[in-house]
Write a structure and sequence with these properties.
By secondary structure, the protein is an alpha/beta fold. It has eleven helices and 17 strands. The chain has a single domain, classed as Rossmann fold. It is globular, with a radius of gyration of 20 Å. InterPro entries: Epimerase_deHydtase, NAD(P)-bd_dom_sf.
């Protein structure tokens, strides 16, 4: 593995106003200064844009505190090849972290177009730009890190999920686009010797997270006194991973690129890797909801006497959903010495405190 020192580097982060992207930018500014970060986000209204704007403000504040670092933001689309090529020509990124994507399993059932544009065409634009970054003997991109998803495991019966498992049975278009990202990256790594690492994220949560995620939606509904639906009659298990753990994992992976080497045929062995990043500790959805409720009461988002039982309804599975996600993270631990370990209570406590402040409950 090639060690990369991030200090002084130019890093291109797509989806930089997103949940994981914005937290990664903040972490890099705080720990890797001087660093030059280029951010891209189309700021679409798939969910409340004011949360994305809040995240961008956090970044602006952080840049002021780290005067030797820079952050340049482009409000544009991954699917816009012209802007991607322009960014590569102007800024010549050393490292690319592709977190920009249309997220969500359920939305992919009603809005497939968004996924093809962002997750396939957008990712293709990134791969092409990485490929051409080596033109005319230029040093080019040292490492491409990109987001995949635990959803690629589909209805895998074997748990925990290992990156050695076959993942040929996606149950949503979203999952299919993420699996194709891994396939495309593999082909480009092989053909053009681009060091690439895919990260399969497992149910990421935390403050200023995505409102389409269950814990956030539950909170909104409970606050309005509406009923929350718990799928698969509460028998869903999820490997909930706190956002800070995900970001720490991404940061470490950025610093270790798969090595370029040639095989016996003299052709490149693809410098390609895929890792799981999850808590490897699946929690029952009902337990998750109980802790969430306790933390919302503690943060005074909900009143102490809130009648929780009256507001929950157990319902059947939804199309595209899977009953359990469970990450085998031994490879990440072996290669990068890191294992996510933030407890659910710690994570949900920071979410509840952020929620109270952001919505001024």
């Amino acid at each position: 593995m090639n060690h990369i020192d991030l200090k002084g580097k130019t890093v291109f982060v797509t989806g930089s106003a997103g949940f994981i992207g914005s937290n990664l930018v903040l972490e890099l500014l705080k720990t890797q200064s001087p660093i030059h970060i280029i951010g891209l986000d189309n700021m679409n209204d798939y969910y409340d844009v004011s949360i994305k704007e809040w995240r961008l403000k956090e970044i602006e504040e952080c840049v002021k505190e780290h005067a030797d670092s820079t952050y340049t933001f482009y409000k544009d689309d991954l699917a816009n090849k012209t802007i991607i090529d322009q960014i590569f020509t102007e800024h010549k990124p050393d490292i690319v972290v592709n977190l920009g994507a249309q997220a969500g399993v359920r939305y992919s059932i009603t809005n497939p177009d968004a996924y093809i544009q962002s997750n396939l065409i957008g990712f293709y634009n990134i791969l092409e730009a990485c490929r051409h970054s080596y033109d005319n003997g230029a040093k080019g991109v040292e490492h491409l890190v990109y987001a995949s998803s635990s959803s690629v495991y589909g209805t895998n019966k074997k748990v925990p999920y290992s990156t050695d498992d076959k993942v040929d049975n996606p149950v949503s278009l979203y999952a299919a686009t993420k699996k194709s990202n891994e396939l495309m990256a593999h082909a480009y790594s092989k053909l053009y010797n681009i060091p690439s690492t895919g990260l399969r994220f497992f149910t990421v949560y935390g403050p200023a997270g995505r409102p389409d995620m269950a814990y956030f939606g539950f909170t909104n509904k409970l606050l309005k006194g509406e009923t929350i639906q718990i799928f698969n009659y509460g028998h869903c298990k999820r490997d909930f991973t706190y956002v800070d753990d995900i970001v720490e994992g991404v940061k470490r992976v950025m610093q270790g690129a798969p090595e370029k080497k040639n095989g016996e045929d003299g052709l490149p062995i693809p410098p390609y890797a895929v890792y799981n990043i999850g808590n490897s500790n699946p929690e029952n959805l009902l337990d998750f909801v109980t802790i969430l409720q306790e933390e919302l009461i503690r943060a005074e988002v909900l009143p102490a006497d809130y009648d929780f039982e009256a507001h929950k309804e157990l319902v059947a599975m939804q199309p595209g959903d899977v009953p359990v996600t469970y990450a085998d993270t031994s490879a990440l631990e072996r290669d990068y010495g890191f294992k996510p370990n933030t407890s659910l209570r710690t994570g949900l406590r920071s979410f509840a405190e952020w929620y109270k402040k952001f919505y001024q409950v």
